[in-house]
């Protein structure tokens, strides 16, 4: 069982700078079968002298350098380790410089010259120093280097790094030429004194120069050789920036490069011993073989993983159960409006998701489409808020497992309004050559409502809010219009000398962006009697108007209205009598309810305000204390856009379609 040395051992050849240096082995003992691991540590002896890269070093130092400036010196190398490695430096006696010995992260030493007394070129142009490197052996071994210092005239601004220490990390398999770090220094001098050249500091180890390269102009540190995490985990690189002045200013910085481990080493399985053959009656747990598994990588890269196969046991899960999407109307077709997001914790095909639009409404399929792979919902056509405000649909998210699992997500698309509809004038009707004429009597006081402009806007909300402005008038001082109601009022009392005919142009504007507008023209006659109005209407009509015999038609209209009124009143009387008898019978039978007939339909305000077009009514105004009655007959010129409203009125009160209103000797106000 003795372990013997078979040849001469050189620790530096076997392990280099690694410490401790050990050789591992394994021993198998049989009967009983056992495995032992062992290691032999190779101890270092002081058999190597420190060595400088060169026998002479030259430094150029400006006389303007202030006390306290530091100048790195080339480091000596000693292949021994531990106490036998390089331990310290010594500097020959001189009045200007002291020596400061620093320790790197790996424990190695390097020396820097520290200026204690400023230089004077006129007093001494050169300095000769001797630097001695000593190891820790007993007795110590040493090496010497001559340092020649040239004192040059001042370049009063040295380069300055923007930071003294840079940190970077790089993967061990990074290819050559990859950028590791970019250092930057600035020099306030001009010309050559301000041009900066980057280089490695003199005490940068040769191994670092083999692995990294530095761009002298850009300060870019790049990978040059092959990095190995298992060999070195951290590199401490010292760089300098020097200007091109006659006495170059120098600045120094440090770059710490951390090597990141990658899984570049396969596990190694070693069969140490095999117990064969195995008896057929061997008990469970009998050792059959001894295996040894090693991996040079670190952390997770060095573990052995056991793969677990996936089962489709998770349904897709959406980040939201429902989505609300708001789309402006008049959109561009084909735009994406939503991305339905879902995840599946399964693996492979079990986690591959597909998106389908469930079409409960056929309209949805024509308007919307979804990308099966990424869940992007597209709008295929332009939407109109006035046509439909909301669309509802269901998106199904399904995985690729067998059997597949699915989740449904509801999507609501709301069409927001744009101001794309101008106000539409309902009264007076704009699409006709004829003119509705409203009548107001002379002497009408201020504040009297003459008529009303009625308009609608197909948009919604603020876009449909209409304002009315008097744009043009025959007499601007006589009439005004309500800003939001469209009601036209008298601003002052009508005088005898006011013009008999007034034309008002009303501007209607909504409140959208941009503002859309329309206009309405209102004709108002100032007349005491209907004859004057009829005369005015005849005057403004074309000479070839076939309705020039208006008097004849008016007389005929009066006769027809009177006959219709008589028939109507007779029908109403019969109807009232019938209802009275019916209610009496109902009262006698139940004595619990009373029948109340609806009152007559009053639509004078609607007519006077302009809600009811004039072709749906005739009005006769009768005075109570004069022998002459005034007839006001408005003859239709165009069809009414409010026919549906008049149908409602006729259905509500069929017996009172023509009305006779008793008034005083003046025209009625809207309240009357």
TrEMBL record:
Gene Ontology MF annotations: calcium ion binding
Membrane-topology descriptor: Single-pass type I membrane protein
Subcellular location: Cell membrane
Residues covered by the Cadherin domain: 53-161, 162-269, 319-425, 432-544
Stretches that traverse the bilayer: 552-575
InterPro entries (UniProt xref): Cadherin-like_dom, Cadherin-like_sf, Cadherin_C, Cadherin_CS, Cadherin_N, Protocadherin/Cadherin-CA
Keyword Cell membrane on entry: yes
Keyword flag DNA-binding: no
Gene Ontology terms: cellular component: plasma membrane
Gene3D superfamilies noted in UniProt: Cadherins
Keywords associated with the record: Calcium, Cell adhesion, Cell membrane, Glycoprotein, Membrane, Repeat, Signal, Transmembrane, Transmembrane helix
UniProt GO BP: homophilic cell adhesion via plasma membrane adhesion molecules
Pfam families with a match to the protein in the record: Cadherin (PF00028), Cadherin_2 (PF08266), Cadherin_C_2 (PF16492)
Name this protein carries in UniProt: PCDGK protein
Organism, as annotated: Haliaeetus albicilla
Lineage start: Eukaryota, Metazoa, Chordata, Craniata, Vertebrata
């Amino acid at each position: 069982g003795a372990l013997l040395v078979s040849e001469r051992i050189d620790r530096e050849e076997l392990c280099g700078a690694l410490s401790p240096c050990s050789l591992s082995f394994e021993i198998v003992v049989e009967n009983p079968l056992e495995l032992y691991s062992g290691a032999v540590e190779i101890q270092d002896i002081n058999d190597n002298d420190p060595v400088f890269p060169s026998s002479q070093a030259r430094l150029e130092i400006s006389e303007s350098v202030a006390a306290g400036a530091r100048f790195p010196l080339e480091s000596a190398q000693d292949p021994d380790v531990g106490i036998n490695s390089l331990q310290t430096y010594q500097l020959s006696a001189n009045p200007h410089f002291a020596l400061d010995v620093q320790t790197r992260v790996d424990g190695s030493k390097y020396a820097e010259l520290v200026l204690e007394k400023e230089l004077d070129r006129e007093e001494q142009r050169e300095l000769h120093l001797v630097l001695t490197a000593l190891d820790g052996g007993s007795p110590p071994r040493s090496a010497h280097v001559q340092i020649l210092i040239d004192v040059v005239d001042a370049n009063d601004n040295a380069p300055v790094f923007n930071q003294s220490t840079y940190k970077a990390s790089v993967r061990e398999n990074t290819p050559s030429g990859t950028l590791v770090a970019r250092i930057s220094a600035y020099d306030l001098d001009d010309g050559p004194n301000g041009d900066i050249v980057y280089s490695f500091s003199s005490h940068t180890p040769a191994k670092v120069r083999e692995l990294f390269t530095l761009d002298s102009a850009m300060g870019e540190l790049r990978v040059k050789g092959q990095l190995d995490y298992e060999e070195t985990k951290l590199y401490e690189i010292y760089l300098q920036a020097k200007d091109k002045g006659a006495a170059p200013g120098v600045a120094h910085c440090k770059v710490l490069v951390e090597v990141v481990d990658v899984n570049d080493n396969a596990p190694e399985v070693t069969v140490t011993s095999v117990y064969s053959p195995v008896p057929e009656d061997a008990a469970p747990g009998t050792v059959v073989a001894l295996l040894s598994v090693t991996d040079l990588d670190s952390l997770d890269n060095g573990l052995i993983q056991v793969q677990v196969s996936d089962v489709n046991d998770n349904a897709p899960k959406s980040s939201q159960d429902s989505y609300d999407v708001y789309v402006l109307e008049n959109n561009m077709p084909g735009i994406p409006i939503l991305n339905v997001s879902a995840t599946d914790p399964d693996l492979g095909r079990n986690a591959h998701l597909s998106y389908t639009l469930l079409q409960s409404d056929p309209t949805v399929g024509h308007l919307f489409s979804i990308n099966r792979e990424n869940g992007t919902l597209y709008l295929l056509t332009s939407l109109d808020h006035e046509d439909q405000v909301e669309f509802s649909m269901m998106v199904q998210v399904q995985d690729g497992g067998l059997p597949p699992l699915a989740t449904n997500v509801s999507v609501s698309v709301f069409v927001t309004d744009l101001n794309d509809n101008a106000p539409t004038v309902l009264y007076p009707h704009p699409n006709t050559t004829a003119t509705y004429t409203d009548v107001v009597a002379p002497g009408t006081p201020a504040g009297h409502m003459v008529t009303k402009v009625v308009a609608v806007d197909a948009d919604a909300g603020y876009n449909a809010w209409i304002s009315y402005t008097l744009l043009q008038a025959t007499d601007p001082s006589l009439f005004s219009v309500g800003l939001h109601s469209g009601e036209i009022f008298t601003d002052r009392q009508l005088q005898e000398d006011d013009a008999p005919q007034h034309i008002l142009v009303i501007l209607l504007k909504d409140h959208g962006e941009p503002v859309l507008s329309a206009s309405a023209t209102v004709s108002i006659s100032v007349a005491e009697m209907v004859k004057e109005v009829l005369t005015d209407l005849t005057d403004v009509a074309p000479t070839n108007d076939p309705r020039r015999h208006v008097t004849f038609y008016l007389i005929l209209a009066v006769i027809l209205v009177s006959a219709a009124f008589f028939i109507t009143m007779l029908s109403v009387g019969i109807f009232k009598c019938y209802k009275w008898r019916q209610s009496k019978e109902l009262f006698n039978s139940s004595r619990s309810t009373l029948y109340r007939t609806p009152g007559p339909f009053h639509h004078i305000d609607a007519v006077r305000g302009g809600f009811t077009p004039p072709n749906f009514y005739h009005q006769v105004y009768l005075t109570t204390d004069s022998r002459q009655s005034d007839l006001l007959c408005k003859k239709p010129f165009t069809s009414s856009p409010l026919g549906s409203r008049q149908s409602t009125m006729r259905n509500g009160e069929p017996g009172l379609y023509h009305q006779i209103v008793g008034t005083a000797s003046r025209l009625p106000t809207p309240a009357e």
